[in-house]
Design a protein that fits this description.
Elements (H helix, E strand, L loop, with lengths): L3 E5 L6 E6 L3 H18 L4 H17 L1 H12 L3 H25 L3 E5 L2 E9 L2 E5 L7 H13 L2 E5 L5 H13 L7 E3 L4 H9 L3 E7 L2 H13 L3 E5 L5 E4 L5 H13 L11 E5 H16 L19 H16 L3 E4 L14 E4 L6 H4 L6 E7 L2 H9 L7 E4 L3 H10 L7 E2 L18 E2 L12 E8 L1
Parallel strand pairs: 5-6, 5-8, 6-7, 8-9, 10-11, 10-15, 11-14, 13-14, 15-16
Antiparallel strand pairs: 1-2, 3-4, 4-18, 9-17, 12-13
GO molecular function, one term: aldehyde dehydrogenase [NAD(P)+] activity
Pfam families: Aldedh
InterPro entries: Ald_DH/histidinol_DH (IPR016161), Ald_DH_C (IPR016163), Ald_DH_CS_CYS (IPR016160), Ald_DH_N (IPR016162), Aldehyde_DH_dom (IPR015590), ALDH_GabD1-like (IPR044148), GABD/Sad-like (IPR047110)
Length: 457
């Protein structure tokens, strides 16, 4: 086992910093310290917890420039995207501080012969295993909800953004969160199993691939621990016959390239009805062809590097296999000869079942365009996926699009005539191989609580 983590700048391929992994003894002590902090925190009134969470939001904004620079350095995010990410996390704190005391307040109900009380009690320490693509947001998304609920929080962050995880801990404690209540674990995968087994750990949440979700959920199930899984997806954006192509093309380019194409809810498959297919492809390809790769620290850059060379190479292999099986790259499709984990904006057409571009998640700036016979066929193709996290519909008839979204689109989140990542007051999560459970919108605060029934005679 390696005893250190070294972070690497994916744009320059230069080392940033090295960190020592925890020993097993240090890991046990860290979990114990988090549990002890939880025992005090759970007794705090809801308003007191909310005040500290509000202060965390303020501290995030105060640290935005420094935090954004670190994230861009560690994972290659465009600097503007990094700054927006910190602001989103601050707004999550604002929403949670405002709504948390209401969401978690006791509820009274009439029962025969008396009054029933529904109480939302914290359960203990919650363990989060999080990826690198949003170094601040992925941790904040589950941590803030669980801190509001009164739980303690452990974070195993992706190795390549270790510095961001530790920076976030500093932000939390500077804002007044008790020491050890939010603990960053510098551990390997074998040690992660020990965390799940620890009796102080009462819940596990993971954001990652569906294969990682299966592994972690199985380990948690062995130990009767509840889980929330936010897994991958190949989100379909449907362009119906009556769509406004100006709106659709603009949103679909943004949706594919946001965060250098490395987002679980990126728009990935573009399903276009035959009637407007040629026009969409021509206009979409023109926009994607104009996207140039560049320095992610430059505010004018439209596409930065991917987070690691091996991730870039995996994407390139998926594109090559799709082409071997009949797809065509009309834009991009070749790894550039330059330093850094760069891959160009790419457009694939003639995408069909059996190709990675149709079946799998392409986690990078590659768009798969699929022709549908008509609107009904477009919905069929969109649902012809093992995933179901996000998606979109473009139509001038908003009422009809809303009905299709609600009744026929088998996915967790749907944008109509636009592209969205996450909004604090709306639930976030998916179905099928994209996982289960919900975060945001007040739902995340109740995923890991003991919902108690109290009967007053």
């Amino acid at each position: 086992m390696t005893s250190q983590i070294t972070t690497i700048n994916p744009a320059t391929e230069q080392p940033i910093k090295s960190y020592d992994l925890m020993t097993n003894a240090e890991l046990s002590e860290a979990i114990e310290a988090c549990h002890k902090a939880f025992l005090s925190w759970k007794a705090k009134p809801l308003d007191e917890r909310a005040n500290i969470i509000r202060a965390i939001g303020q501290e995030l904004r105060a640290s935005k420039t420094e935090f954004a620079k670190l994230m861009t350095e560690e994972v290659g995010k465009l600097i503007g995207d990094s700054e927006q990410e910190v602001e989103l996390c601050a707004s999550i704190c604002d929403f949670t501080a405002e709504q948390g005391p209401k969401e978690l307040a006791d509820e009274e109900r009439e029962i025969p012969g008396g009054t029933g009380v529904v109480s939302y009690a914290p359960v203990g320490v919650i363990y989060g295993i999080q990826p690198w693509n949003f170094p601040c947001y992925q941790a904040v998304r589950y941590a803030i909800a669980n801190l509001m609920a009164g739980n303690g929080v452990l974070l195993k962050h992706a190795e390549i953004c270790t510095g961001s995880g530790l920076f976030l801990k500093q932000v939390f404690e500077t804002a007044g969160l008790p020491k050890d209540l939010f603990t960053v674990l510098l551990i390997d995968h074998d040690q992660s199993d020990a965390v799940i087994e620890n009796p102080h750990v009462r819940g596990v949440t993971l954001t990652g691939s569906d294969s990682a979700g299966r592994t972690v959920a199985a380990k948690a199930a062995e130990n009767l621990k509840k889980t929330v899984m936010e897994l991958g997806s190949n989100d379909a954006y449907i362009v119906l016959e009556d769509a406004d192509l100006d709106v659709a093309v603009k949103a679909c380019v943004e949706g594919r390239l946001y965060n250098n194409g490395q987002t679980c809810v990126n728009a990935k498959r573009f399903i276009v009805t035959e009637k407007i297919y040629d026009s969409f492809v021509e206009r979409y390809a023109e926009k994607m062809r104009d996207i140039e790769m560049g320095d992610p620290t430059d505010q004018d850059t439209k596409l930065g590097p991917m987070a690691r060379n091996d991730l870039r190479d995996k994407l390139a292999a998926q594109v090559d296999e799709s082409i071997d099986k009949g797809a065509r790259a009309i834009v991009g499709g070749k790894t550039p000869d330059r330093k850094g984990a760069y891959y160009p904006a790419t457009v694939l057409v003639d995408v069909e079942p059996g190709q990675p571009a149709y079946e799998d998640e392409l986690f990078g700036p590659v768009a798969s365009i699929i022709k549908a016979r008509d609107d009904d066929d477009a919905i069929r193709i969109a649902n012809d996926s093992r995933y179901g996290l996000g998606g979109g519909i473009f139509s001038r008839d908003e009422k009809r699009a809303r009905k299709l979204a609600a009744e026929r689109f088998d996915t967790g989140m749907i944008s109509v005539n636009g592209f969205n990542i996450a909004i604090p007051n709306m639930p976030f999560g998916g179905v099928k191989d994209s996982g289960y459970g919900r975060e945001h919108g007040g739902f995340g605060m109740k995923e890991f609580v003991n919902i108690k029934s109290i009967y007053l005679a």
